[in-house]
């Protein structure tokens, strides 16, 4: 409880009102293209963003704002057909050598084989907390919503509103939790055929290029924008700010229904869990796996 209070106190600095992020999903307003030499495009009156990968280069973008806690949604439609060797990454990441990071990575596969959704949490530059899943739908046929809830108590990864993973704040037993470093939302489409598909056995088929992933309906209404010039969050300094209508996400947890959905996903669709990989950790599983 003490760690939760200290995290919340850090976030709720001396700005009197909660400033909400625009929810229109205007990509020109909310994001900047960071690389790709024209392979990333903002289209449809700034309502659609596409990333393209060919043999010469991939592409990427990042949010103009940094966030210190938030509930963030994005709809993605992944590379269709033979996507083996490609990775579509969608994640929050801070700066510096001891960075924090919250990852969705979509590992492509041969036509007809399922995508692998790879998740990870980095704290102070250390990851190794991978969980991987198959999806219960074709993520290339239409757009689906991929969400990150990040508050001082937990991180929840969700797909179309269904939680697939929860990483709790366990600082009380010595497990670092990302709570001090603001992060940007970043995405990229790139070639990783040295590891992405079947451990690198299946290479990218460049005859199928260009590969394209599409994005729409970004929503960070429920997020705290970090100001580097003021060194403050946009969230209220009030200790009861989580009780302000719309701010319930600051203390949100998984209710009974969502816990049941989480168990359903992990029972039926999880294909790798670092907390079960005894061979990988011969000296003992990570501390958070024992709680």
Profile the largest sheet: 15 strands, antiparallel
Tell me the total number of β-strands. Answer: 15
Instruction: Characterize the overall form.
Output: globular
Tell me the structural class: mainly beta
Structural Rg: 19 Å
Query: Please, what is the average pLDDT?
Result: 90
How far the N terminus sits from the C terminus, by CA atoms, comes to: 16 Å
The percent range for helix content is under 10%
Which spans have pLDDT < 50 for at least 5 consecutive residues? 1-24
Query: Number of helix segments?
Result: 3
Secondary-structure element series: HHEEEEEEEEEEEEEEHE
Content of β-strand? 35-45%
Sequence-ordered SSE layout with sheet pairings:
Elements lengths: L1 H10 L15 H4 E5 L5 E3 L4 E6 L5 E19 L8 E8 L7 E7 L8 E7 L8 E3 L10 E8 L2 E6 L2 E7 L14 E9 L19 E17 L4 E2 L22 H13 L1 E4 L18
Antiparallel strand pairs: 1-4, 2-3, 3-13, 4-9, 4-12, 4-13, 5-6, 5-12, 6-7, 7-8, 8-15, 9-10, 10-11, 13-14
What does this structure look like?
With 291 residues, this protein is mainly β. It contains three helices and 15 strands. It has helices spanning 2-11, 27-30, 256-268, and strands at 31-35, 41-43, 48-53, 59-77, 86-93, 101-107, 116-122, 131-133, 144-151, 154-159, 162-168, 183-191, 211-227, 232-233, 270-273. It has a 15-stranded antiparallel sheet that branches. Strand 7 (116-122) and strand 8 (131-133) form a beta hairpin. The chain is globular. The model is unreliable at 1-24 (pLDDT under 50).
